[in-house]
Each structure stands twice: as structure tokens, then as C-alpha cells.
Amino acid sequence: xxxxxxxxxxxxxxxxxxxxxxxxxxxxxxxxxxxxxxxxxxxxxxxxxxxxxxxxxxxxxxxxxxxxxxxxxxxxxxxxxxxxxxxxxxxxxxxxxxxxxxxxxxxxxxxxxxxxxxxxxxxxxxxxxxxxxxxxxxxxxxxxxxxxxxxxxxxxxxxxxxxxxxxxxxxxxxxxxxxxxxxxxxxxxxxxxxxxxxxxxxxxxxxxxxxxxxxxxxxxxxxxxxxxxxxxxxxxxxxxxxxxxxxxxxxxxxxxxxxxxxxxxxxxxxxxxxxxxxxxxxxxxxxxxxxxxxxxxxxxxxxxxxxxxxxxxxxxxxxxxxxxxxxxxxxxxxxxxxxxxxxxxxxxxxxxxxxxxxxxxxxxxxxxxxxxxxxxxxxxxxxxxxxxxxxxxxxxxxxxxxxxxxxxxxxxxxxxxxxxxxxxxxxxxxxxxxxxxxxxxxxxxxxxxxxxxxxxxxxxxxxxxxxxxxxxxxxxxxxxxxxxxxxxxxxxxxxxxxxxxxxxxxxxxxxxxxxxxxxxxxxxxxxxxxxxxxxxxxxxxxxxxxxxxxxxxxxxxxxxxxxxxxxxxxxxxxxxxxxxxxxxxxxxxxxxxxxxxxxxxxxxxxxxxxxxxxxxxxxxxxxxxxxxxxxxxxxxxxxxxxxxxxxxxxxxxxxxxxxxxxxx
Length: 664
Prior knowledge:
Elements: E1 12-17, E2 24-27, E3 37-39, E4 45-50, E5 55-61, E6 72-77, E7 82-87, E8 90-95, E9 111-117, E10 122-127, E11 132-136, E12 142-146, E13 155-160, E14 167-171, E15 175-179, E16 185-190, E17 201-204, E18 209-212, E19 219-221, E20 230-232, E21 246-252, E22 256-261, E23 266-270, E24 275-281, E25 284-287, H1 314-322, E26 332-337, E27 352-356, E28 360-365, E29 370-376, E30 385-388, E31 394-398, E32 404-408, E33 426-431, E34 438-446, E35 449-456, E36 461-465, E37 472-473, H2 482-497, H3 501-529, H4 548-560, E38 567-570, E39 578-581, H5 594-597, H6 599-603, H7 619-622, H8 635-663
Parallel strand pairs: 16-20
Antiparallel strand pairs: 1-2, 1-4, 3-6, 4-5, 6-7, 7-8, 9-10, 10-11, 11-12, 13-14, 14-15, 15-16, 17-18, 18-19, 21-22, 22-23, 23-24, 24-25, 26-27, 27-28, 28-29, 30-31, 31-32, 32-33, 34-35, 35-36, 36-37, 38-39
Helix pairs in contact: 3-4
């Protein structure tokens, strides 16, 4: 059985429509990637349909010859936007081209992963074109780039070792390569056993390297046995425990390992023994304790999921049978342990966060095996991804539309509750830095400032802060300086905090007036985007090009703002955070200086005197001597010059005398 399409696949299908009465064939979005549709009748026109709106998006004329006896096969690779058409012995390929955009691009191909190297203070990014780039986080300048790391295969994920001196890249060619930062590959891990696989995550531990993404089993490598260039995987002692592909993995010291799968199950393992002991799911939880639990693949087939589960009671079994996830609505795409919450699980608080299908974020207690809270972070956008800072104060989530949200989870789910919490944590910021799906998120700290790095399939990488910082794009023409930017923000925050209570009351009263006139306009714009109401204090830099929807919303805000005299206006999204506009106070009378009272005295013009230019004497009167070389050169030089002439003259005379004597 082929791999399943990921959650949040666009609702588009490819179909055929004949100019004669030949019916219509559809390639529906619920078909698996390896499934084929066989059509036995002649078609000449290909149409692309939107199922949701039941509209034909595009009409393509096919160039196949007419024939009465033929067979057509269609295969739509939605990941790469390619449609393969086989007509008898002919094969055609239709490829979707990305729309041209003026947006700044960080990579030539869609970006798949971003990391932050705190040792070198650099951002590391990869793309579908097998390129790895390195950027200075302080300025956004690209310093180096590795191309063709896995040939032409896509780099799907990356990881850094504990010392941050080695980079691991996982590719769809079925290999994981270990690099130094000079571009030298030290080892190649054969993950897919010489086959193409979809690697979603690499986790580096002290004694093992775990790779997941395409199989129900964990693929493990043991670095102490890296004695050659090509390394083969070893057996995971815990065997296969998942009933679907493992998409993510997380580790909590000293020995807790968690893996999340496509069907929504989270399995807890003991890292040293590599044995599983519990299964968590939004609808149930079960204990793994018998030997038969170690080999679930022998208990039931894929078509009979949930029928022979070895569980302690039948209630969880019935729940799983009725809640079998076939569309990835509960798929666990990312897992994060809250390591900064020391011993919080023992007191009943949450120590594990998961996200994925349908836009939900869930908080778990792995010690009590309990789901404490779940909330809808992004509605109507399918699967999401996330990242959490090291101090576990902030959670960032990104969706398929390029929208990013920042949540304050510092005091969220600290205690155990009888009922599951569905209330969302405090939303700090919501904005759309990208035009397409956010594929990777990373949070890092630089000079005591928390930064968010986001990568997208729109080929861009954005860097921003938690509270109202600008959004920078790696690759933009103008480099930034983090220290200068954050010093301006801190000065603005200090100015707001220093306001008196009376001024703050005026600000609140005035802002309510502004919000009332903006309510109808903003509400309609938010409805068109199908986004939740949230605080938006996004201030873009001058060098980026945002989406049209955000620009339209910002224009409406500017038109609706009014200036009120004798009151203070606070603009959280502008350069001037606090602006006071009131009538000017009268200045005291100033004594005029003396030069203004009596200008004639200081600026009176004196009568000009005509200057007479004396006549120059004649040249004959001033010439002392006639020009001669005797006046210019010393006597010795003139004598040296004169002697050769005299000698020549004397010699000439003697010759003449001799000639005259001979003639006589």
C-alpha cells in the first residue's frame, strides 16, 4: 500500500472531459500517490477541477493521436505538482509552474528546514534543490552555500549534533549525510536500504541517531560503530509498535522517548531498553505490557484496524475503532518536551506538546498519561507545525497559508484538572510573513532577545521577534543590524511604560474610539481570510513584499485613523509609539538684538574707492642684458664645450694645408 497524502492537501483534482459524449474521469484528492485511474474511452481535453467550489480551473488540450483501442493511465504527484499521463505506449508529463512573485527569495527552490547554530551565530537552511545555505543572524548576510548535497534529491530535514560542529541532512534519496562546516561529508547513513524514503526527522542522542518519517519502525544508527564511510542501520530493540508511519520523535532526559504517528498515536519508550510502555491518543490511552504487544503487525491487517487491540479494557478499544483516523486529522507532525518545567509532571502539569492535523495543539502529562488541554490554533488550514523556546515561555505555530502565531504558555497547564482545558493560551501576535506553507520553525536567543525563524515553500526565510519586531527576509538587499533594531524597540517600550496613569486612561479611551470605527472594516477582512481575531502588532521592514490581503487590511486601517486634538494617540504599529498633538503654547516676548534694532549701524555700506592699477614699465627699461649662453652656464662648462670645437678646427686646417701642398 502506498504512502498516504499528508493532511491539508489542497482540494484540487485532475479530470478528463471529451469533446464527444464520452463521460468524465476524475483523479480525486483522496487517492493515494501510487494509485492509478484506468480509463478505457477516448479523451482529448484535460481539465483541472476544484472540488470545493465545483469549478473547472484549467483546460489543457492533450496531443495524443486518435485511436479506437487504447488505455490511459493517470498518476498525479501532488507534492511536486506533476501529472503523468500514459497513452498506450506514450508517456506525457504535465508540470505545474510556480507563479512569479516580486517577493524576496532566500532560496531558488522551496525551503524545507531551518536550524540555528548558537556556536557560530548562524542560520542554516535547506531546500528541495539539495542546497544548504549559511546566514549571519546579526545581519542576514549569506556567508556560504553547499550545492548538490544529495545530487538532485530534496533535503527534507536537518539536525545538529550536541556540540553543533556536525550537520546531518536527510534526503528523499534514502540517505542521511554527516557534514562538517567546510563542506566535507564524513559518513553516509543508508536509511532507506538503497531506496527512496520520506525522512521527516533526525534525532541525535548520546549513543544513537534515530530517523523517522516513512515507516512504522524507528530506524536507529549507533555512532560508536561508525568505522567506515557507508553505515547501515541496526535493529530497534523495541520492534514495531505503531500502526501507521512515524512522523516525529522527541526526547526528555534522562530516558523518556516519545514518537508520534500519522494515526494520532503517541508512544512512550524507555530509551535505554528501547521498549515501549504506553500509548497516548486524544480519544484513548492504553498500556503496553504483554509480549504480544511488541508485534502488533501480526495481530491484524490494515483493513481490520482496531479489531484485535491488546488493551486492558474494551472502552479504549471501542473508542479507537470508532475514531480510526483515515484522513490524518489527528496526525502528530511535531512533538516537543517542556524540559524547562522541572518535575512538573509529578505535580500534574503538562510536560509534552504535540501538534499536526486539523490545526490542533495538545498538552500532555506523560507521567499520568493524561491529555490536559487541546485548542484550535489555526482553523480550516489543515496540518500545522510548531516550535517552543528553551525556557518554555512561548509557542509559535505556522500553517499552510503562511500564517504564524505566537502564544504565551509560561503559565499554561501547570496543574492537573479533572476536565480537559479547551481555552487557548494568551495570543501575543498573529501575522502572515509568508505567501505559502510554513515548513519549518526555529526559536533562538541572540543578545537576550528571542527570535523566530520561519521557512516556507514560497522560497523565503523570515526572521522576527516576539513583540512587534520587524520582519526581515534572508536575501533582502538591505542588511539589518539586530542590536540597533532592538535598541529602538526597547526605547519605545520604555517610553510607553513611563506614561502617567492619566495619559494611559486617555489612550484607552481614544483607542476604543478608533476600534469602533475600524470594527466593521476589519471584521469583514478577517472573515475573508477565515482567521481568528488576534492582536496584530506586525511592523514590516522596508525591503519585504507582503501578501495582498495584509496590504489591503493595512490600507483600510490607515484610512480609518483620525487625529484627535487635546488627546494622546498611541500607535502600536507605527514608528512613533506615542504621539501628543495639541495647540502650541505661547512663547514669551524675546528682546531683539542690537543688529536688528539698528541695522544701518552694522550693515551700512561704505562708499567704494576706485583703485588705480599702475602702468607696467616697458620691457626695454627693465631688460638688464641681452640673452646669451654666457649668462646662463658657468665658464668651466663653456670651456669644455669650446675645446673640442677648436681641436676640430685645427685638424681641419692642417688637412687643408697638406692637400694644398700635394697639389703643388
